[in-house]
Amino acid sequence: MDKKERANILSLFLKAALSVNVLVIIIGLTMLFVTNDTYGVYASSICTISALFNCIGLILLLRWNYSGIFPIVIASIVSTVSISITCAGWLQYAFGTFGLVIPYLALGMYLFLLFSLLFFKAKGKTAWQQMEAGFDYKHFRHIYQLSTVIIIAIAITAYFVMPNQPEVNIDSEDEISHLIENVSPERLDAADVTIEEVVSFEKQYNDANDVNSRDRKVTKRIFALKHLLLSGLMPEIHNRENLVNICMVHAGEFSPEQQAIIDWYLALDISIQDEWNICNKAISISDFKSKIEERIK
Predict the structure, then answer these.
(1) pTM for this structure?
(2) What are the distances in angstroms from CA 263 to CA 65, 125, 200?
(3) Distance between CA atoms of 43 and 203, rounded to whole angstroms?
(4) Under a CB-based contact definition with an 8 Å cutoff, are residues 188 and 259 in contact?
(5) Which of 91, 118, 245, 296 matches a 20 to 30 Å C-alpha distance to 274?
C-alpha cells in the first residue's frame, strides 16, 4: 500500500482549524453561563454545537476519511444561517448593512480554503484522492458517544439559562386608552409616536388595504414599534436586557430618527444603560431618551 501523504499546508490548516474550533467550544460553553442575553444564549449554543461537529469532521479528515467533510459543511452552513438571524441586530449595529453578510463571507472563505487544500496536489496526487469513505465508527465510537452527551447537555443548559422575557400580547389593545382617527403615515417615523397612534394607524391601514397589497416595510415598522413600546418601554417592570434584545431583533426597521435614539442608548456604557432598570416607564422613544438623560445628569 502506498504511503499516504498530504501537503504540509493542508496539515497545518486542519490542525489550526481544529484548535480554533476547540477554543470556540470552550468560549461558547463559558458564555452560556456568563451571558444574560437571549440571543447570546442562542448564539453560544449554536456556535458550540457547530464547533463540536467541525472538530469531528476535521479529525476524520486528519485520519484520511473524506466523510468528515459532511459534518463540517452541514454544521457550518446551519450555524452561519442561524447566527445571521439571531445576531442580525448586533451585526448591523456594529458594521452597518455589511454586517449582515459577514457570517456568509466567513463561511465562504473557510470552505473555499478547505476544499482548495484538499484538492491541492502534492507529489502528483491530492489528499482527497487518498482518502477513504466511512465514519470510522470502530475508532470513533467513544467520540461520537461523548459528543452526543455534550450536545444534549448544551441543549439542557441553554434551556435553563435562557432569560425569561416578559410575555406581552402585541396584538392586543389592552394598553390603548383610545383610538385616534386619521393618523398620518409620517407619525410612524416620529420618535414621539405613541402606542395609541401606532395601533390606530394599523387599524386604518389594514382597513384600507387587503393583506396582499400591504407594504411589508410599513407592517414591519408597525410590528417593531408595538413590540418596542409594549414590551420594552411601557411595562411597569422593565429591564435593559429585554430592551436591548428588542432593539437588536428589529434593527433597521425603525425610522432614522427613532434608530438614532436607539443607537445613542446602545452606545452608552452598560452601567449607564442599566439606569433604565430603575426609570419609570416611557410612552414613546423620545420619552425614553428623556428619562435616561435625567438619570445620568
Answers:
(1) 0.64
(2) 49, 54, 27
(3) 36
(4) no
(5) 91
